[in-house]
Amino acid sequence: MAEAARERLRDYLRELKPEARALLATELERAQLRGEGLPGAAFILQALRDTARRDGPTPPRVGNPQRLFFAPLEPFLVDDAPERKHRGRIPRACLDPIWTFICRDLMPKEAKKYIEQVQLLLAGNEKNGAEQVARAFQDATEQRLRECFAAIKSDDKTRRRVAGQIGTPHALEDVRELAAVLRLRDALAVIGSRLPPTISNLAGEQLENVKTLLDSPIARHRDVFLYALLMVMNRLGSPWQLIRLAISAAASDEAAHIAETAFAVAVDVVLGDLDRMIANLRNVVMNACGDEIACLLKEIHDAARALHSEIDLPADSPWGRQLAASRAAVAGLLEAEIGDIPGQVRLLLRPRSLKETGAEGTLDAVEVAGIEAKLLLTALCRNYASELAISETTRRVTSDLQNYFDSGTQVLLDRLRTAPPGERTFRQSQVDAAIRFCAKLFGPEYAGLLAKAADVAAKGEQKAAKA
């Protein structure tokens, strides 16, 4: 499909009402399950879901055999690199390799039959029947995995072979988590049904209710407890609030008393989640994703602050050392990104000869956008500098840039005003970049003043040229 046709189709789909988009997506997915592949169906489905993500809730999916099988794992999936292991959780990226292992190596005949049955049921809109078939296949898979673990317990060669067939960095641990969740599926479903869909503030009566649920026999079972905690965390608006259960259980905010309770694992989980967020921050900073950076910085800041403000956490305790290491990691990451920004700005906006710029040349747009992203990061860091241990760096960088723009912008304007014809376009691109940079770091009012001054300088140049 030509790009122009794709764009017209996207525009048409965006104009549809949400109900119509949901209905169209459902019918296309059912057609795919029936094997009736329509031209462009994959593109249309993707466009529908992209539009839904921007405009509101994503339309419900018809489902497929793999998604239905892994449904009990949803509260325990984590969006992180497969190399990182989280207690009680499985990286979402590991699901495809695990599914391939089940269908190709563990029980190929049973998997083939399951897929065929579920596809027929879902295509006929028989969701309840498909879920019953999925439950039976989940039970059969858990039983086969139990047999597999027994076989590899004392056989290193078989263990290596099975790990290689799965192919994930923590293959056997990931599959053990899957088997555990499938085995505990019904108990976890009961706990999930008794939790509120969302918990904006885990305090007061809400805290007491959740604590009572987790103290019940079904949740306090040693195999269930960790997963029950993770289910609570999954419902929290601020995941760090999970530590309040540990504080409540100990009836104290002292780390030593909390560590003696069964709920101490809640602190471990929150610290692990903090490390996951820092790893994700590293990825989004590399890709200059502004909105994600702002969201992650706030979440990291809030979690780090809560860990040492809500808990009396001695610096030499295991939890205290782990928190200090996490704060040092995020500080090192941010300092590496913003520490040399003043030098980069000066280098980009330095005077250049016509030989360097070329006639009618301009600044490199990618380079400008890269510095702009780092300036946005600098501005965001100022909001969280103290908790993230980067106060000194942000103060130095902001002060250097403030001094540069206070004195250097006049130089930029003078160069624009006096530039010969062949250099005017490049000088204007430098001033435009400076305006964008100031908007990110000092706000629209400061940038607006610079833009007005630039406009006056450009008009003065035009008058001089006419004269």
Protein architecture, described:
There is one protein chain. The protein has 467 residues and is mostly helical. The protein has four domains: 3-62, no CATH class; 73-180, no CATH class; 189-332; 340-466, no CATH class. The chain has 24 helices and two strands. The protein has a two-stranded parallel ribbon. Helix 22 (391-418) runs antiparallel to helix 23. Residues 462-467 have low confidence and may be disordered.
Query: Which structural class matches the secondary elements?
Result: mainly alpha
What fraction of the residues are assigned to beta strands by DSSP? under 5%
The assembly state of the depicted protein chains is: single chain
Pattern of helices and strands? HHHHEEHHHHHHHHHHHHHHHHHHHH
Task: Give the integer mean of the pLDDT values.
Answer: 87
Q: List the total number of helices.
A: 24
- Whole-number count of domains: 4
User: How many strands?
Assistant: 2
The first-to-last residue Cα distance is 54 Å
Percent helix among the residues?
Answer: over 70%
Unreliable spans are: 462-467
Strand order of the largest sheet: 1-2
Radius of gyration: 29 Å
Characterize the main sheet.
2 strands, parallel
